[in-house]
Amino acid sequence: MGLAGDGGGWLLSLWALRGLPVYVVQAVLAGSLAVTVLLARAVLRTPLRGRDYGAVAVMVGALAVVGLSSDEQPASVPGHGTTVVLAVAGFAVAAITGAAVLVAGRTDRRGLLLAGLGGVAYSATALAGRAVEIRTPVLATLAEPLLWVVICTGVAGTAAYAAALRRGTVAAVTGLLWAVEVIVPALVAVPLLGDEIRHGWAAPAVLGVMAVVGAAAVLARSSGTAATAEQQPA
Which of 98, 137, 173, 189 shows the greatest Cβ crowding within 10 Å of its Cβ? Predict the structure, then answer.
């Protein structure tokens, strides 16, 4: 059920990317962090410090600022060079993330590396989803390499996130994942895909991104007694 809900949200986010800049869509999606962390406290009995609640509040507020820093912008067709760069980088990210999941038991006890790679993979998904050209008839889109980047990085990101949650606390893993998902697309999409920041909002957008980084750092240090899903009582 969780994967089905995640898949539905993923499809809706790809639809949203056709009319909104990448970093705006990612910022709105990242608002789910607050719900995730609070539900982890209620359902999994994951301990949270006062600063963790504060970090959630700061992150949600900062993400709202980032989301408001741009107007609606229909997706534009990228040039051939941009498509090649996104395709090569996307497939490389998917491969590296998949390899990390396979060896995670020996290299990532807390799940933070996996969370970071999952965030990078989801960032590639969003960037490719924004740039992919939807052709007519729709079946012709299957020939678009960026469509396969969306699929491969989406699967790799989901696997990495799931593996990270088996090793680290929900707050730390999800906080780091979403911070990467907001920051990486913001840094890439503006110069590479031409996504624009609303006039007069450059400073608030930058401060918002910095606040996201700070809040994620606080959540990533949340010990929560280091209780992982594998350690939860039946």
Answer: 173
- Token pair of 193, please? 């895909």
Return the ∠ at Cα 103 (arms to 102 and 105), rounded to 5°. Answer: 110
Question: Is the separation of the CB atoms in 184 and 20 below 8 Å?
Answer: no
- HSE, side-chain direction, 13 A CA sphere, residue 40: 27
CA distance 17 to 69: 16
Q: How many residues does the chain have?
A: 234
Q: What is the DSSP letter of 78?
A: P
Q: How far is CA 214 from the centre of its chain?
A: 16
pLDDT band at residue 228 under the 50/70/90 scheme? very low
Q: Who's near 211: CB < 8 A, 6+ residues apart?
A: 58, 59, 61, 62, 65
User: Residue 114 corresponds to which tokens in the numbers above?
Assistant: 């996996």
pLDDT of residue 163: 92
For residue 19, what are its two tokens? 């009319």
Contact 169, 220 (CB under 8 A): no
In a 3-state reduction of DSSP, which class is residue 228?
coil
Count of CB atoms situated within 10 Å of the CB of 117: 28
d(CA 126, CA 26): 8
